[in-house]
Design goal:
Elements lengths: L5 H23 L2 H22 L5 H19 L4 H11 L14 H9 L6 H11 L5 H8 L3 H18 L8 H6 L1 H16 L3 E2 L5 H17 L4 H14 L25 H17 L4 H14 L8 H14 L3 H14 L2 H10 L4 H4 L2 H13 L3 H13 L2 E2 H14 L18
Parallel strand pairs: 1-2
Helix pairs in contact: 1-2, 1-3, 1-5, 2-3, 3-4, 6-7, 6-8, 6-10, 7-8, 10-11, 10-12, 11-12, 12-13, 12-14, 13-14, 14-15, 15-16, 16-17, 17-19, 19-20, 20-21
């Protein structure tokens, strides 16, 4: 059996991290111990798998190895009888055996544990991204548009809060479940976004995170089949995911929405997402995720970019901004305004948002502004804005796209693309 390279081993652990941590957290009752155990298993895999290759069941191996390492750790630290007792109990349990419940999924149980109301919303989301999605602290900080050190402190405090408060590892019921729904939805959407537009690294897309967010979204929809925003989030993710095959070239370069070959979109996902949106419209209980899904459904209605109903998209953004007022929604609305009222009107909106703290380090804010300036013939100002965008992204594909746009504006560059070049952001 061929061995695996360190990169391939890291990919396997990315894919299995959430389930492994969730399974062990249920048995340990200790998130730090579960994370440390999986990291120990990763270290063993890095030593062995390049020579032996992966085991038949990588997930089962990771969980079993992590559990055994945790037992060893508990015994070494057994200065008190309770640690030794915990080690003995764990040794008698097979962590691969699933307990029966309404969903039967450890990762969903872990999401609701992390989203306990004893934690601040930002900490709920960040902790679940770390434990379920396997995102690094740097990636989560990017998702929150905050410094890495701030996010590290937030994660540490959140895990300590769960441990000290004895928060149970279970799926809540009734009113308690409803109270935790908003951060759970935010978790899934942020996991999906990190997969669809990776904050760092060589690849623009991390398909494993997209798939995990959609999988958890489907599970949540089964748990709460009558909840409109759960359905709306699932539809939103499906419609965005449908575009992934056309979002990059064979070389991994970014292809903006307006230039994508729509024949390559996944029609099955488009049909499924649009059907969910229609059900949401019939319920007539609009919420932010449902409105965003409707926006993406309008995009998917157009066989070619030029047939997009931008007026309808602009109206939906007006509704979304009234429902969920925040600078990023306003920024995306400006992209639609550029198509309905022209780049000058859109630029006025974008410039009015420039003082928003959450946008100053957001590369798409500067990239959208650069594109609008370019369309207005203000090449020097556009070039400055592109440089700001380039400095604020850690993703290689996005940096290449923005650098190419900047090069076309500089002396000797090629500005022949004209209207072909649109903002790298799609609304």
């Amino acid at each position: 059996m061929p061995g695996l390279s360190p990169t391939e081993i890291e990919r396997v652990f990315r894919e299995e991290h959430g389930r492994a941590v969730a399974v062990l957290a249920r048995h340990f009752g200790d998130l730090d111990l579960a994370e440390e155990a999986i990291q120990d298993a990763f270290t063993v895999a890095v030593e062995r798998w390049p020579v032996t290759g992966p085991p038949p069941s990588a997930a089962g191996w990771i969980i079993t190895t992590g559990r055994n390492r945790a037992i060893d750790r508990l015994r070494r630290e057994a200065t008190r009888g309770d640690r030794e007792d915990q080690a003995l109990r764990l040794q008698m349990v097979d962590p691969s055996v699933e307990e029966e419940d309404v969903v039967g999924d450890d990762r969903l149980r872990l999401i609701f544990t992390c989203c306990h109301p004893a934690l601040a919303t930002a900490s709920q989301v960040a902790l679940t991204l770390r434990l379920l999605g396997g995102l690094t602290t740097v990636e989560i900080a990017h998702a929150f548009l905050c410094p890495e050190v701030t996010m590290a402190q937030r994660l540490t405090r959140a895990k300590a809060k769960i441990r000290d408060a004895g928060i149970p590892y279970r799926i809540p019921e009734g009113a308690e479940l409803s109270a935790r729904l908003a951060p759970v939805l935010a978790v899934l959407y942020l996991i999906f976004n990190e997969g669809y537009a990776a904050s760092s690294g060589a690849a623009l897309v991390r398909a494993d995170l997209c798939a995990e967010a959609i999988r958890l979204g489907r599970l949540l929809e089964k748990l709460l089949p009558g909840e409109p925003e759960v359905a709306g989030l699932l539809a939103l993710m499906l419609l965005i995911e449908s575009r992934r095959p056309a979002r990059t070239t064979v070389d991994g370069d970014l292809v903006p929405l307006g230039q994508q070959d729509r024949s390559r979109w996944n029609r099955d996902l488009v049909v499924e997402g649009q059907a969910i949106v229609r059900v949401c419209l019939l319920r007539n209980q609009p919420g932010p995720y449902q409105i965003q899904a409707a926006i993406n459904a309008v995009h998917s209605d157009a066989a070619v970019s030029g047939a997009t109903d931008w007026s309808q998209i602009a109206r939906l953004y007006d509704q979304l901004l009234a429902c969920a007022p925040n600078p990023i929604v306003a920024l995306n609305r400006a992209v639609a305004v550029a198509e309905t009222e022209g780049p000058e009107a859109a630029l006025a909106i974008v410039d009015a948002l420039s003082d928003a703290p959450s946008l100053q380090s957001y590369h798409l804010h500067h990239a959208i502004r650069a594109d609008l300036l370019r369309r207005l013939g203000r090449a020097a100002d556009a070039a400055d804005a592109y440089r700001l965008a380039i400095a604020r992204t850690s993703n290689d594909a996005e940096r290449r796209f923005l650098t190419a746009a900047l090069a076309r504006l500089e002396p000797g560059g090629d500005e022949r693309a004209g209207k072909k070049d649109r903002s790298p952001a799609g609304p």
